[in-house]
Amino acid sequence: MLKVIAEDFIKPDRIGIVTPLYAELVEKTRQEPLCIAYDLFVDQKDAGHFVFIEEWPDRAALDAHCRSEHFRRLVPLINRHQRREGTFILMDAFAS
Amino acid sequence: MLKVIAEDFIKPDRIGIVTPLYAELVEKTRQEPLCIAYDLFVDQKDAGHFVFIEEWPDRAALDAHCRSEHFRRLVPLINRHQRREGTFILMDAFAS
């Protein structure tokens, strides 16, 4: 299991432009056969701070997602409206 | 619904000390009646970077968690071993 947090920082006046792009990205990604979870959230203190919480079976599944038609088409369109570069963290479940 | 990401940054030589404290915090928090999800992950690139992904019905439930005996006892014990202050984000679900 691979958990991912991916954060985007969008210019405040561009939120209306990216919203349908994010909606399509979520819808299409959830249709990927290897997608376990792909949920998008918005920071309560910053409406341009978008946070994906994702779950994939493994790194190969994430890499396939990043090669998908919808990812390669939509992510560059979203990134035109960034105010700074996004971040991501790949994580394993905590094991005590 | 309230989604929370809380990140802790622990000194590398203290990971063994905080691990049982995190394990108890997760176990006790999941027993709280209002806890929907409370999952802990570790950054694949930084074994001292611990990331909670939480879900609560509302802010009052999160506040009650922060007032719980286990939170008030364990979090200060964990924080003794921080290398820098933790961060948190409170989020709403994305609505297209």
UniProtKB/TrEMBL annotation, chains A, B:
Pfam family, one: ABM
Keyword list, A-Z: Monooxygenase, Oxidoreductase
Signal peptide, first to last residue: none
Source organism superkingdom: Bacteria
CC annotations in GO: cytosol
Oxidoreductase among keywords: yes
Annotated ABM domain residues: 2-91
SUPFAM superfamilies (alphabetical): Dimeric alpha+beta barrel
GO molecular function, one term: monooxygenase activity
PANTHER family in the record: ABM DOMAIN-CONTAINING PROTEIN, QUINOL MONOOXYGENASE YGIN-RELATED
Protein known as: Quinol monooxygenase YgiN
Origin species: Aquamicrobium lusatiense
